[in-house]
From TrEMBL:
InterPro entries: NAD(P)-bd_dom_sf, Sc_DH/Rdtase_CS, SDR_fam. This is Retinol dehydrogenase 7-like. The keyword Oxidoreductase applies. PANTHER family: DEHYDROGENASE_REDUCTASE (SDR FAMILY) MEMBER 9, SHORT-CHAIN DEHYDROGENASE/REDUCTASE FAMILY 9C. GO terms for biological process: steroid metabolic process. One of its GO terms (molecular function) is oxidoreductase activity. It comes from the Eukaryota. Belongs to the short-chain dehydrogenases/reductases (SDR) family.
Length: 319
């Protein structure tokens, strides 16, 4: 019986592997628009797709990001400045892309741009803290997608949205998980809306990887700044040792569990862009597959218990 079940599992994964092998043809005529190419996943994906022969349009926030890509990629790669918080910036890039792709349309947009700070317990934050992150992580994704959606429909192409396992479960406070839940909802609704047009809408849900999102230095600086702005009464609720304990978790725990192999995520992105039969969802990272996603399917009482057991204790707790 067990050997029979094992055989079915092996057959399923072998069948899926073979089924997902074919790639799209004529890559040299397919344009791929990627946001957030200054560093991390976006930067690596731009280089990777350029080597694969796609016509990459790499959107960067900084001039340095553009210059670095131009030096390391082929002449066919196009770089452009993009601020996903700005309607004018998004419209300007969309107009440039329309002129560039012509009647062929845009094969894919990869919404990769995102930020992770400020992140902290909800009662440390203001609505402005939420708005600043939502403007990048959620509103930026929606605005960029809508700006080029007619071109993607023309090419019967793809929309690839980079969410997170934290779009499935919220182990921390602040706007990051809220924004990623929003990306998941936008992704799901758009996927259904685009079925009649032959457009694929795909979602990447990475676990912990060594990028700016999990950088202990960036996160620690943000937490410390928020702590120093807090009223004394709120600091007393958490206790004088709370800040240092959080810093230790960021430096030791988060840094250790973050995977340095960014190609695990980039390979999923590349598959979403280039596979004839892409998956609806990708969850790169063993922590995503074996911990966060299973945790998200558990009853809320159980998942809450597991997460609170691992949380940094506060000084003033209600008994």
């Amino acid at each position: 019986m067990y050997l029979y079940l094992l055989g079915l599992v092996v057959f399923f994964y072998l069948y899926r592997w073979v089924r997902e092998l074919p790639r799209v043809s004529d890559k040299g005529s397919k344009y791929v628009y990627i946001t957030g190419c200054d560093s991390g996943f976006g930067n690596l994906l731009a280089r990777h797709l350029d080597k694969k022969g796609f016509r990459v349009i790499a959107a960067c926030f900084t001039e340095k990001g553009e210059e670095d890509l131009k030096k390391s990629c082929s002449r066919s790669l196009i770089t452009t400045h993009l601020d996903v918080r700005s309607k004018d910036s998004i419209a300007k890039v969309a107009a440039m892309i329309k002129d560039e792709v012509g009647q062929r349309g845009l094969w894919a947009v990869v919404n990769n741009a995102g930020v992770a700070v400020p992140s902290a317990p909800c009662d440390w934050l203001t609505i402005d803290d939420y708005t600043s992150m939502m403007d990048v992580n959620l509103n930026g994704v929606i605005a960029v997608t809508l700006s080029v959606l007619p071109l993607i429909k023309k090419a019967r192409g793809r929309v690839v949205n980079v969410a997170s396992v934290f779009g499935r479960i919220s182990p921390t406070g602040g706007p990051y998980t809220v924004s990623k839940y929003g990306v998941e909802a936008f992704n799901d609704s758009l996927r259904l809306n685009m079925v009649p047009f032959g457009v694929r809408v795909l979602c990447i849900e990475p676990g912990f990887f060594k990028t700016n999102v999990t950088d202990a230095g960036i996160l620690s600086k943000s937490i410390k700044t928020l702590w120093e702005k807090m009223p004394q009464e709120l600091r007393d609720d958490y206790g004088p040792e709370y800040l240092q304990k959080v810093m230790d978790v960021l430096t030791n725990k988060v840094a250790k569990i973050s995977d340095a192999d960014l190609m695990k995520v980039v390979s999923c992105m590349e598959h979403a862009v280039s596979a004839v039969r892409p998956r609806t969802r990708y969850s790169p990272g063993w922590d995503a597959k074996l911990f966060w996603l299973p945790l998200s399917y558990m009853p809320s009482r159980l998942s809450d218990y597991i997460m609170t057991m691992e949380a940094v204790p506060i000084a003033r707790q209600i008994q």
